[in-house]
Amino acid sequence: MMTDIQTILPVAIVLSSLIPGLLIFSLKESQHRLRITLNLAGVFSKLLLVGWMLHGVSQGQQFSFNITFLPGADLILQGDALSLQFVALSSVLWLATTIYAIGYLEGSAFRSRFFGYFSLCVSATVGLALAGNLVTFLVFYELLTLATFPLVVHRGTDAAIRAGKVYLAYTVSGGVLVLMGVALLHALAGTPDFIPGGYLSPLVDQHQAGLTLAFVLMVLGLGVKAALLPVHGWLPQAMVAPAPVSALLHAVAVVKAGAFGIIRLVYDVYGIETLSLLQLTEGLMILAAATIIYGSIRALQQTEIKKRLAYSTVSQVSYITLGVAMLGPIAAIGALVHLVHQGLMKITLFFCAGNFAETLNIHHIREMNGLGQRMPLTMAAFTIGALGMIGVPPIAGFISKWYLGLGALETGQSWILWVFVCSGLLNAAYFLPLLYRGWFAKPAVEWAAHPQAKRPASVWNETHWMLLWPTLFTALLAIVTGILAGSDFSPLAWAQLIVAREFAP
Amino acid sequence: MIEALSILLLWLGGAFFVIGTVGLLRFPDVYSRLHALTKADTLGLGLVILGLSLRADQLFTVLLMLFIWLLVMASSATACQLLARYQLQSDKDSSDGGK
Amino acid sequence: MNAALVSMVVPFFAAMLVLMWRPQQQSWLVIVASIVSLLAAMMALLSVIDSGPQSLNLGGWESPLAIRFQLMPVNALLIVTTAVIHLIVVCFAASSHHCQSIKQAFWPLALLLHGSLVALWLSMDLFNWYVTLELLGLAAVSLVTLAGHKALRAALDYLLLSLFASLTYLLGVVMLYGQYGTLDIALLATLTEADRVTQTALLLISAGLMLKAALWPLHLWLPAAHSSAPTPVSALLSALVVKAPLFILWLLWSRVAPSELAVPMGFWLALLGGGALMIGGWSACRTPHLKTLVAYSTVAQLGYGLLALGLLLHWQLNDLQAALWLFVVAHALAKTSMFLAAGEIQASTGKKRLNSLRGMTLTMPVALFAFAVAGGSLIGLPPSGGFIAKWLLIQPMLIEPAHWPWALLVIIATLLSAAYVFRVVSQGFRQSSVSATATEHGKSAQWLALLPAILVWLMALFSEPLLQLMDVFSA
Amino acid sequence: MTLSLQLFLASGGILWLTGLYGLWRNSDPIRRIISLNIMGSGVFLVMVTLARRETSTDPVLHALVVTGLVVAVSATAFALRLAVASQQEKR
Amino acid sequence: MAASELILDLILCLVLLSLAVAVVEVKRLYDSIILFIAFGLILSITWARLGAPDLALAEAAIGAGITGVLLMAAYANLAPKKHLQNSHRSWLAVGFSLAAMVWLVLSLIPLADSPESLVAVAEQAMADSGVTHPVTAVLLNFRAWDTLLELVVLLLALLGMQQLRLPSLKIAYPWPLLNAWGRYLAPLTIVIGGYLLWRGSSGPGGAFQSGALLAAGLIVLRLNHVIPGLSWQHAWLRCSVLCGAGFFLIIACLTAWLGQGWLDYPASYSASLIFIIEFLATISIAVTLAWLVTGQQEAAS
């Protein structure tokens, strides 16, 4: 009986969002309640299943499901520690984003289409996380591209279509590069399952050119989604999408899919040993460092809140890449835990930006003056997210940066510390003015006289509850994971478990 | 003897064909061309068939060839009439148009 | 073998029945005939899987004299594909409101086209192929003229080029017969030598076939003919008819041609395939009309077939034939879906241009979705049939660094196809100024358009048995 | 005999090419159809000549020519009708 | 003797080629059509010269006869319009053609010396074919499948023409001499057609030649208003168009189902089966060809 569960569980996790998604497509716009019910049923059943799997994996059980696909490359879904890190993050944030999106889109058109694709997106993300080999990863990676496109162009305006085209141009090109890389590796080595330490070391002598090309292709391809420097351009453009989509794209699905792919590639395909033989990580490290600085500087130049957050993402996601590229165990812990922490903080920030826009029609930084008086709770959440990004203890961001810094010292790359310091200062430079304006500056008009804003009945009612509560929830998570980082079930502890397995001799 | 006669007839028939063709090419209008052509058809073909009949070893073959000659004569007569009438009609039309 | 014959004969008989009795409800008869043909085709496929390739000498005469039929995995698969697509297309024609005007004449012609296709797939005889190619050409042109006066010019050009191609093909065939005294493919394969006559004959045959298959640079007639035809006809032509010459081309070069000729020719064919991919894709990205875009996409996608065929010959790699035929089948299904969806959209808006697609996600969501899903397979997104074919194609390209330039070609082609597919899809997401609501009528036609697109993605799940089938054959 | 066969073979090839040239040179559909017929005649001439190579003629080639002729006349008839129809639409 | 034969062949070839070039090159469409008909006649003489009487018959009836009528009919339909002059004479095209000619002729010439053919095999199989004329044996037995499909080609051409919905052939008013001649000619063609069909099993002739001849008879009758316009409304016409291919197909299925295999006639019946098939095919061919020439008569509306 147990073996059956172990095969079915990975599929069930993917299907728990896929099936509601497909059902939602067939609904009419007016079937409001049914749609919400389906969404929530999907969310909670997924959380339940993920919890089950987490428990199992921590007990050392193996979860694996496979069907035949290409010659020598089955479709494999498996739950290991690394994939669960990502799956758990996605599922929890899906819960928050779903509730947020229901509130955000209340009364607008095309909701069936929106939630349908939204669920497909989550399914693709989860599938990508659970993928047991490169070909399976590729399948879900491309599906993710397809599923997010309708969300980017959801509004149907000219600007949205243009952004959608830019998004596609980048991600499809990236997808093709990844495809080529995967196919090249398949041609050289077949497609075995991901295994800690990689499976390519026997080929280093014979196929150096092939392996190098494949790595470059795949890092470039994955780098598109992870918004690495030369190919990051889609991310700020994609900001025209509705707020829940921005939150989902930036915190969970797309950028993390890219980063996660790089993690898989480095640890479970090439392996640290092979990569250091091929000397490929130097370039990746420099690229990531450059992206961190460049993203921060560009963020500083933006005057729109969402654009600033977008460039901040460009910068922050590269911390993960940088941590991975250092090839040391402590840096790896930092990278893995940053995957989660950055997600929590950034989604909070985007929720807040959405709340500002939705409640008071505020899009620009200069309009934020005195916002704390009108929306104190949202502003507080925003503060938590921003401080976490800068790396102020005890918020989660501090933990990951701490480990990354230690990792840099451990691997002897002390120049990276300077990158972190520099970036931290820039972070402060682009977030603190927002906080200052929000809490201390005088509003341009009295909030009571603001054309958009009715005076809230109470503090808890500053905006729609479905917009407020998810924001507070994720902000709380960002603090809790920071404070309780030392406990057994924190993301940090889980990251240490993963690294212990990856770097096991 | 028969051989020689046959050859003579064949040459004669061929000559009529040639003359008819020359006429077709040289005569000025449709009517005189038709005149040349029909001579070639009927007489030329008749002579050729006569010449070939002398060489035939079966009566059936001779009858067959005669039959062919008759058919060709009938059809060329009809076709000739058709063409002449058509030409006459169009001549009339054009002279009417001229007035 | 008998099942395959049934699959071929049933459409012929049904066509004659429809012509003779002229029943009021023709569509049911046609649909039933298509179902029977499909069932028979499946049985034929099963029998090939069970007992391997089968050969039949028509009339019971010995081999060089008789026309020979052969049922192999490849053509069994093609017969099934033909039957599936015909079934879908006739159901579409029966249910779409926009096809009412063409119906009377459409049924018998479509049936005859079906029968002729199966006859072509089965045959292994050079001259018999000439007759079946003529059948296909005449049926196809007649079907194009169903669209009315606007299509006549395109139909005439199509017919003249098709006749010219047939005669070129025939001259080559005659030369081969003159040299080797047989028309049978298998016998020729044992006899051919790399001499001047053979070379000229093969070149003539190839030129004719490439013109008929609209392989670049002989493709110029295709966009006009395919885009001006009625919707179900466009689907049949693009999905099936252009594949028939490719089948002959493949048999000829991979079996009959001696390798001294095949290896250099393979290089040129592959190069032409690359040209088709580039030029076809580029034209599809530029054209302002929806159906023309889909037609140019056919030109481009046929380039993949030619590329696979060329590389198969150039590297003498029999593994690539799986790629070739999966491309053909995947493209057939995807293109059916695309043309049906595009035609249904065009008919309901009444406009040809691409920008009339605004707001289609609301008014005709299923049709647009079908277009997008089919487009996914054309681009080669996993896990679709198109992806598997592309995967098989690029494997041998990647394994040797010297072959990497070909892979670059495939990358560019993929990006071009993505560009033209999303050109259409993103228009559909654009907000429309008129507040349109979902139209209820025509729903069934839209779902029928979606069906082949779903099938092509399902192909991915059955790729293992499909590839085994191909392996049986190459072994 | 061989010489005369070669002569006919060459003529067949040249006829085929003449038709091809006519197809290229003329834009009027009817003339193009005629050119196609000349091409076809060229091919048939090659076929009939090839049938003549041995002492007894090759019936297979003759039968193929008969088939080819019927196909050609069907296609010509349809093409001419189509040409007329398309020209009438233009007016 | 050989020299004079060669001279004859040379003249034939030169006439053929110069006619062909003239057809392509002359200015007026009408001249081109006339020259093409002449070309067809010379071609049929060439067939006779090359020992192919079947083909000479078929060419004279189908190639020159029916095609000529078709061309004239098309010309008549387009007559009011200025015909397009042959437009672009480019020296590039001429040069290319000449180069291609050298290449093609050089590839064709060697074929004269490689007598690979199916003659021996066909002769061996003649005994079991049920007929004594080899061409008929090939057409209706050895390669019967080609012939069946070819009947379908005819059918398709007819269907294609039908749904173009063109007005049928314009027919001049009847004129006594022509009328009378037509009335004599028509029965004659039927007799000769029947003779050709019957003769097909043992000598030159057969379904196609006979069908073409009968078609010519039908056309003459139609032109003389003896028979009404052909219309798809009439069941017997549909039947006669379909009977050739239909019966052939039924036989094919029956032989596959009950007999030894697809189109494998039982030895004792093969002669009569072939005759019935030829008979029905002749009817189909005749009606279809006549129909193709005279055009579809629209139902009176």
Q: How would you explain this protein's 3D organization?
A:
The complex is a heteropentamer of chains A (505), B (99), C (475), D (91) and E (301). Chain B is an all-alpha fold. Chain B has one domain (2-98). Chain B has three helices and no strands. The longest helix of chain B has 40 residues, at 59-98. Chain C has helices at 2-21, 26-51, 73-95, 103-122, 126-145, 152-180, 185-191, 196-212, 221-228, 231-241, 243-256, 259-286, 290-314, 320-349, 360-363, 365-379, 385-399, 404-429, 443-458, 463-474; strands at residues 54-57, 68-71. The two termini of chain C are 20 Å apart. Chain E has a domain at 132-301. With 301 residues, chain E is mostly helical. Helix content of chain E is 71%, strand content 0%. Chain E is built from eleven helices and no strands. At the D-E interface, helix 1, helix 2 and helix 3 of D face helix 1, helix 2, helix 3, helix 4 and helix 5 of E.
Multimerization state: heteropentamer
pLDDT below 50 for ≥5 consecutive residues: which ranges of chain B? none
Distance between the termini of chain B: 63 Å
SSE run of chain B: HHH
Short account of what is shown:
The complex is a heteropentamer of chains A (505), B (99), C (475), D (91) and E (301). With 505 residues, chain A is mainly α. Chain A has 19 helices and two strands.
What are the salient characteristics of this protein?
heteropentamer, B: 99 residues, mainly alpha, 3 helices, elongated, E: 301 residues, 11 helices, 71% helix, globular
Blueprint of the fold:
The complex is a heteropentamer of chains A (505), B (99), C (475), D (91) and E (301).
Chain C: H1 2-21, H2 26-51, E1 54-57, E2 68-71, H3 73-95, H4 103-122, H5 126-145, H6 152-180, H7 185-191, H8 196-212, H9 221-228, H10 231-241, H11 243-256, H12 259-286, H13 290-314, H14 320-349, H15 360-363, H16 365-379, H17 385-399, H18 404-429, H19 443-458, H20 463-474
Antiparallel strand pairs in C: 1-2
Helix pairs in contact in C: 1-2, 1-4, 2-3, 2-4, 3-4, 3-10, 3-14, 3-19, 4-5, 5-6, 5-10, 6-8, 6-9, 7-11, 8-11, 9-10, 9-13, 10-14, 11-13, 12-13, 12-18, 13-14, 13-18, 14-16, 14-17, 14-19, 16-18, 16-19, 17-18
Chain D: H1 2-25, H2 29-51, H3 59-90
Chain E: H1 2-25, H2 29-49, H3 53-78, H4 91-108, H5 119-125, H6 134-142, H7 144-162, H8 176-199, H9 207-223, H10 235-257, H11 270-294
Helix pairs in contact in E: 1-2, 2-3, 3-9, 6-7, 7-10, 7-11, 8-9, 9-11, 10-11
